[in-house]
From TrEMBL:
This protein's UniProt keywords: Cytoplasm, GTPase activation
Taxon lineage: Eukaryota, Metazoa, Chordata, Craniata, Vertebrata
Location(s) in or outside the cell: Cytoplasm
Protein name: Rab GDP dissociation inhibitor beta-like
GO cellular component, one term: cytoplasm
A biological-process GO annotation: vesicle-mediated transport
Recorded family membership: Belongs to the Rab GDI family.
Top-level taxonomic group: Eukaryota
Species, as recorded: Solea senegalensis
MF annotations from Gene Ontology: GTPase activator activity; Rab GDP-dissociation inhibitor activity
Pfam families found in the cross-reference section: GDI
Length: 446
């Protein structure tokens, strides 16, 4: 380890692995280490099933759960938006050649003690029980306005200023009621709270467009999920880094981050120091440079049936808007199954999660847990959320944010782009990555 690297990366979470891959592609000499013996860090997929039980101090699973090696259980549930930033990163870097995906079969929203399918076609919208007939007409006009809205073309704006008009004012412009605002803001724009209502409308408009564009790609829902679980994603980017000379060391204890005059110069492991110019890590490797900003509670539930009232789908997402259960944050339910090679035949994994608001986090999940029907086994975790206390430009240590309660990777990708810009001094440019692709992968194929 007596070498100098441009970048050392600590932790093999998705954020760290993507940045490791991007830096390697950009010609940087990268050393990537993790104290664990597996990829994924806190976002790993656990296999076999016995390891999940051991992780929570439980005895071995009963025989009815099937073969343990058929299970790959995500610790943190997330889906990919089909037209989102992570899919663009996967396509541009060609990490897709290591992965296979399936479309999530259904997207649902909770309203008035029942779950309703989020309409995926105009026909479904017209027949949806989410809205009355007059509300449907107003909602259709609203969606037509959103799809045609262009910041650069005043003719499409209808007097709506992207930076000054609030989203609440846009809803009022189309006379949409509270129920439709809830459904739109939380199931289409995928906000966790109602704070967005008083903010400039452009972010919400772009989020609804992303949902619509993602939905248009495959029809059933806007979400994709990798076969064999989310743990495949960091491994895919780790392979990318290795192709371009990145060095990986798992099961490597990290003793100390070494500084000189307040700036990182290396990492000490097993008595040796690997030197570097920049360091990327997750919050667990630099707790003194992070602050706690909240908690997320998650319940991993193993089922032998589909979730009731979801049309017997093998996979789905259910969003419970916070206003429907008198909370400040939404509750999310994600379900995947044997159809994704993450459970034994006929078995399902549902994960319920939300941002913690009280001193009894598990009780906060009850509205979501009540939707699942009988649960074979349940594992509950409460995770602290951390973010860095500085931008890292002086110390050259760049720390990722903890994974939040959202069930998609858009906030994770925003963090990746933010770290990239702080490290390089320039914005992450999808177009630039696209331009490099032919030269990069021509070399890699030789």
């Amino acid at each position: 380890m007596d070498e100098e690297y441009d970048v050392i990366v600590l932790g093999t979470g998705l954020t760290e692995c993507i940045l490791s891959g991007i830096m390697s592609v950009n010609g940087k000499k990268v050393l990537h280490m993790d104290r664990n013996s597996y990829y994924g860090a806190e976002s790993a997929s656990i296999t076999p099933l016995d390891d999940l039980y051991k992780r929570f101090g439980e005895s071995s699973p009963e025989e009815s759960m099937g073969r343990g090696r058929d299970w790959n259980v995500d610790l943190i549930p997330k889906f990919l938006m089909a037209n989102g930033q992570l899919v663009r990163m996967l396509l541009i870097t060609q990490v897709t050649r290591y992965l296979d995906f399936k479309v999530i079969e259904g997207s649902y929203v909770y309203k008035g003690t029942k779950i309703h399918k989020v309409p995926s076609t105009e026909f479904e919208a017209l027949n949806s029980s989410l809205m009355g007939i007059f509300e449907k007409r107003r909602f259709k006009k609203f969606l037509t306005f959103i799809s045609g809205y262009d910041e650069k073309d005043p003719k499409t704006m209808e007097g709506v200023d992207p930076q000054k008009t609030t989203m609440k004012a846009v809803f009022q412009k189309f006379n949409l009621d509270q129920q439709v605002m809830d459904f739109t803001g939380h199931s289409l724009a995928l906000y966790r709270t109602d704070d967005y209502l008083d903010q400039p409308c452009i972010d919400t408009i772009n989020r609804i467009k992303l949902y619509s564009e993602s939905l248009a790609r495959y029809g059933k829902s806007p979400y994709l999920y990798p076969l064999y679980g989310l743990g495949e994603l960091p491994q895919g980017f780790a392979r990318l880094s290795a192709i371009y000379g990145g060095t990986y060391m798992l099961n490597k204890p990290i003793e100390e981050i070494v500084y000189e005059n307040g700036k990182v110069i290396g990492v000490r492991s097993e008595g040796e120091v690997a030197r570097c110019k920049q360091l990327i890590c997750d919050p667990s490797y630099a707790p003194d440079r992070c602050q706690k900003v909240g908690q997320v509670v998650r319940a991993i539930c193993l089922l032998d049936h589909t979730i009731p009232n979801t049309d017997d789908t093998n996979s789905c997402q259910i969003i419970i808007p916070q206003s429907q259960v008198h909370r400040k944050h939404d509750i999310y339910v994600c379900m995947v199954s044997f159809a994704h090679n993450v459970a034994s035949q006929g078995k399902y994994i549902a994960i319920v999660n939300t941002t913690v608001e009280t001193k009894n986090p598990e009780a906060e999940l009850k509205p979501g847990l009540d939707l699942l029907g009988p649960i074979k086994k349940k594992f509950v975790t409460v995770s602290d959320l951390y973010e860095p206390t500085d931008r890292g430009t002086e110390s050259q240590i760049f720390i990722s944010r903890s994974y939040d309660a959202t069930t998609h990777f858009e906030t994770t990708c925003d963090d990746i782009k933010d770290i990239y810009s702080r490290m390089t001094g320039s914005d992450f440019d999808f177009g630039e990555m696209e331009r490099k692709k032919n030269d990069i992968f021509g070399d890699a194929a030789q």
